[in-house]
Task: inverse folding
């Protein structure tokens, strides 16, 4: 029965002459490098939220030792998060054809009989379920999340973070077990014959080299229609299918990309008007309530900083103008040169980051502002009018918009 | 006489896999802490859906195209490549192209949500059109080469 070529358990069922250890090895080594970069940039992105600073920054508080590597997120270089997240999302999308081709190349082994030749082999096959399920789970949740399609069972952060660790555990074992074979397959000029090579090859319609070009072409097409969402102007127009590609939502100084609009966040214009809105700043010296006019009367500073989203899109540097965070800390009793952490609360009704914490090093940076203006104009409602936070190298969601309250003090 | 036993396999492999499972379990209990059934279904379902539905589906489609071309197998790629690239874009950007996230996308980002289907269709047109052009050039070259060497054919 094993050799009945009508059954997928028979090696003769699989007839593509492309399959073989070399083809699989090339794809495997590309994924080895690519997925390692995805894992590292993913962990770095988690650190960028400063999750150990305050519970509001941490969507995976029961992480245990999985947060062993966390560090105080720096503010230099100011494009650090933009680069990290652009690489994470763009590379992930680019690797999809490679992942699909890799899975195609080893599909005969899913059905191979006997199911296990030894205890070690049986465990390896169970591990492959974690590997394949984990890879697809990570790619699918990531691809859905950047398109705002929140159909997965739970919040994106814990699913993608813990899913990544389950996947990576299986990935490391797989890489260690298979890498020697993969490297040997690529070094030798003549291919070893193994179970991936069909005993009944069909007439070829494309060479192996052609098939690899085909996979690479798919990656190139996805890359070319995605990467532009990290740049402004003409380049953004090239990202034809990416969520923040194509063009900007508006024109003029406030025309750049928006993560969540004022309407979406539930901002009521009655609360942001000159009469109604007051910024409440609290510290050891007491509480200060400031109108927008009073804030505009402070010494204002400028900084050129991007908006960079966890979803893998970003803007180029925008020219922000406002009050330095460390000057606000000084207003409520701290030394401007040695400010503490700050807890920021927004007027917004919806969103996982209605409040956010910034660390002392972020408050101390002279480029960190409570911005009132952008590119020479008042902030628009969608960009956080009356006032918003802007901090170098911080993930977009920590640059709180529609700020209502700031509480300085060690968290 | 000893009875035949289940072979254990490489001890290195066993240790490595045990270590991998322990780490996966540590993260796994946290992954499953919420809607455990939903997450397990997504995790296993993703693998099953890929291996038992998506892959057989595109393999069968490809086989049908190859069979459709009959003796002219060398032309298969002119259909296969643009179709696969277009399908790949649809697979990755399906939520945007299908318009299923239209309301959330438009109200969240302030960007028009109804442009993705048109863009995907235009990219698909360019892919197939470009492929047709390449095929036409190739056929023209073959014909010219055949005309130039009439004596070669007897």
Result:
């Amino acid at each position: 029965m094993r050799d009945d070529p009508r059954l997928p358990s028979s090696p003769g069922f699989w007839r593509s002459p492309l399959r073989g250890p070399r083809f699989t090895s090339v794809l495997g080594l590309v994924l080895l490098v690519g997925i390692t970069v995805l894992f590292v940039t993913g962990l770095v992105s988690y650190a960028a939220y400063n999750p150990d600073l305050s519970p509001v920054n941490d969507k995976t508080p029961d992480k245990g030792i999985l947060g062993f590597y966390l560090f105080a997120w720096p503010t230099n270089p100011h494009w650090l998060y933009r680069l990290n997240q652009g690489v994470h999302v763009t590379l992930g999308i680019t690797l999809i054809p490679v992942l699909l081709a890799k899975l195609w190349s080893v599909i005969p082994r899913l059905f191979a009989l006997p199911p296990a030749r030894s205890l070690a082999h049986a465990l390896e096959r169970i591990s492959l379920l974690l590997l394949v399920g984990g890879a697809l789970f990570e790619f699918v949740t990531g691809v859905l999340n950047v398109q705002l399609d929140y159909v997965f069972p739970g919040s994106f952060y814990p699913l993608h973070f813990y899913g990544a660790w389950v996947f990576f555990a299986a990935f490391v074992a797989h890489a260690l077990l298979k890498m020697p074979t993969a490297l040997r397959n690529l070094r030798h000029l003549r291919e070893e014959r193994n179970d991936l090579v069909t005993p009944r090859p069909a007439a070829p319609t494309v060479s192996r080299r052609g098939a690899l070009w085909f996979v690479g072409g798919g990656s190139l097409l996805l890359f070319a229609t995605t990467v532009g969402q990290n740049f402004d102007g003409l380049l953004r127009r090239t990202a034809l299918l990416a969520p923040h590609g194509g063009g900007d939502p508006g024109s003029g100084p406030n025309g750049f990309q928006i993560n969540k609009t004022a309407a979406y966040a539930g901002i009521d214009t009655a609360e942001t008007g000159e009469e109604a809105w007051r910024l409440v700043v609290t510290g050891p010296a007491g509480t200060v309530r400031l109108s927008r006019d009073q804030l505009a009367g402070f010494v204002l500073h400028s900084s050129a900083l991007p908006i960079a989203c966890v979803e893998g899109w970003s803007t180029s540097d925008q020219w922000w103008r406002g009050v330095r965070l460390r000057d606000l800390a000084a207003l409520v009793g701290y030394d401007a040169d040695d400010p503490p952490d700050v807890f920021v609360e927004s007027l917004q009704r919806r969103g996982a980051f209605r409040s956010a914490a910034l660390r002392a090093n972020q408050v101390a940076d002279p480029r960190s502002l409570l911005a009132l203006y952008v590119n020479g104009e008042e902030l628009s409602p969608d960009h956080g009018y009356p006032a918003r936070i802007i901090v170098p190298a911080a993930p977009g969601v920590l640059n709180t918009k529609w700020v209502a309250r700031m509480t300085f003090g060690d968290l | 006489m000893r009875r035949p036993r289940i072979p254990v396999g490489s001890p290195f492999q066993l240790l490595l896999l045990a270590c991998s499972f322990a780490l996966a379990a540590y993260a796994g209990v946290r992954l499953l802490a919420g809607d455990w059934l939903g997450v397990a279904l997504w995790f296993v379902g993703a693998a099953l859906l890929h291996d038992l539905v998506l892959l057989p589906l595109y393999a069968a489609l490809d086989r049908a195209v190859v069979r459709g071309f009959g003796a002219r197998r060398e032309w298969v790629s002119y259909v296969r490549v643009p179709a696969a690239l277009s399908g790949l874009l649809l697979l990755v950007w399906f939520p945007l192209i299908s318009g299923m996230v239209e309301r959330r996308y438009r109200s969240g980002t302030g960007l028009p949500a109804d442009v993705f289907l048109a863009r995907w269709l235009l990219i698909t047109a360019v892919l197939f059109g470009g492929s047709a052009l390449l095929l036409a050039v190739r056929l023209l070259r073959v014909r010219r080469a055949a005309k130039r060497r009439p004596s070669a054919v007897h």
